[in-house]
Design brief:
globular; alpha/beta; seven-stranded parallel β-sheet; 2 domains; Rossmann fold; 438 residues; six-stranded parallel β-sheet
Length: 438
């Protein structure tokens, strides 16, 4: 079914073609008609299934029929990176309209955001804390909000944003449309939904705890103090064009990034100790392919849509099984294939067993014959100055060779699983106010 069959505005349909969206994903096909009909919505789906466009397309369609000059739609999301990604998709989808979009996130100058608010941006994408800052200063009117979208609601509650969300919701009109998108539905989310939604339609696509199709998973048993050496060994001896490495803490992310850089790889890092401009530069460079490796904390586990990630490596076992599912969901996007490895110490086997029960499968254990697992062993390969691995490098047993990133019959580039983060075609302006025909 093409997008035009959903009854969307022609300007939005044209944008989907330019972004190379071939046809609606299952969550888009079910959610868009319900939102256009005015229903409240609870949507749960696997990571990377097109949820962003599932709410942006119908919300933008509704805005085109409403008076301009005041905020009518509000999208709240937990992290700056996800907010910026949604903003990018929104700008691309609204390119042939005169709708204005504002981005309110921490770590960015307040003055520019205040200007967007005073100008009456019809749609705002915000993180909870920064949105409350503007509300407290009465920078904008929210009494005309028609639609509220809570994206990654479970993650917002995990990060402690429930009190902020309740304060924001208390400032909004009681009669409004509310859309709640969440990868999981724990009891606290169900309770929140019962309080703020009216007779919601429930849309669930796929088994929420299941990893995305196309991901090859493996566990690498290793002593805790040999994890960094094993990671270096994998990078040197396995073809890994684009790698996302997860660590538990921001300090370990920084130390590991520096060690990988010293080993001859191009690497950047992403964690909360960085300023917003530093985080923006890290993400932009990784998307462009300037860096082979991105070392990050869990702030990159959700919403990060980079289609070319070939490998996800967790150097620790997440304590929460859902975090593992979200981590590995950063690869195999846009119907591609990818590999996900987790380095597990003896003390983490119990946590890994919980993950395996959660996803309904046991991960194959891989032991490399040419790696010294002795807890006192030096990293002899690193000391010998071995050249980092690249195309054609030897692969240890159990490690899948690099594959073509796109399956036959998959969506063309630009149709990212989160709804796409494509920008308008090269040479077209990217101002925040889009005028039809420009």
């Amino acid at each position: 079914m093409p997008f035009r069959a959903l009854g969307l505005h022609p300007a939005l349909v044209q944008a989907t073609r330019e972004m190379r969206y071939s046809e609606p994903t299952p969550v888009q096909a079910r959610a868009i008609p319900a939102v256009l009909a005015g229903r409240d919505l609870i949507a749960t789906a696997q990571t990377g299934t097109g949820k962003t466009a599932a709410f942006l397309l119908p919300v933008l369609h509704q805005l085109l029929a409403l008076p301009r000059g005041t905020t009518r739609a509000l999208v709240i999301t937990p992290t700056r990176e996800l907010a910026q990604q949604i903003d990018d998709v929104c700008l691309a989808l609204a390119y042939h309209t005169d709708l204005r979009v504002g981005l309110l996130v921490g770590g960015a100058p307040m003055a520019k955001q205040e200007k967007a608010l005073r100008a009456g941006a019809e749609l705002l994408v915000a993180t909870p804390g920064r949105l409350l800052d503007h509300m407290r200063q009465n920078q904008a009117r929210f009494d005309q909000v028609h639609t509220l979208v809570l994206d990654e609601a479970d993650r917002m509650l995990d990060m402690g944003f429930l009190p902020d969300l309740k304060r924001v919701i208390a400032r909004l009109p009681a009669r409004r449309q509310t859309l709640l998108f969440s990868a999981t539905m724990p009891p606290v989310i169900a309770q929140l939904a019962s309080q703020i939604l009216r007779d919601p339609l429930k849309v669930e696509v796929g088994r929420r705890s299941a990893p995305a199709v196309g991901i090859t998973q493996a566990a690498y048993p290793v002593p805790e103090n040999r994890k960094a050496a094993l990671l270096h060994h994998l990078l040197r001896h396995t073809e890994m064009p684009s790698v996302l490495v997860f660590t538990r803490t921001k300090m370990s992310a920084r130390r590991l990034a520096r060690a990988i850089a010293a080993d001859g790889f191009t690497v950047t890092e992403l964690h909360s100790n960085l300023t917003q401009p530093q985080r923006n530069r890290a993400m932009a460079g990784f998307r462009r392919g300037d860096y082979q490796v991105l070392v990050a904390t869990n702030i990159a586990a959700r919403g990060l849509d980079v289609e070319h990630i070939t490998h996800v490596i967790s150097v620790d076992v997440p304590a929460v099984p859902d975090d593992y599912v979200h981590r590995i969901g950063r690869t195999a996007r846009a119907e591609a294939e990818g590999d996900a490895f987790v380095l597990v110490s003896p003390g983490e086997e119990k946590a890994l067993a919980q993950i395996e029960r959660h996803i309904g499968q046991r991960l194959p254990r891989v032991t490399l014959p040419d790696f010294d697992y002795s807890q006192s062993a030096p990293d002899r390969a690193a000391k010998a100055g071995r050249k980092p691995g690249g195309p054609g490098a030897a692969r240890p047993p159990g490690v899948a060779p690099h594959r073509s990133r796109t399956k036959a019959g998959s969506r063309p580039p630009g149709q990212g699983n989160s709804g796409g983060n494509s920008r308008p075609p090269a040479g077209q302006p990217r101002s925040r106010r889009r005028r039809r025909g420009r």
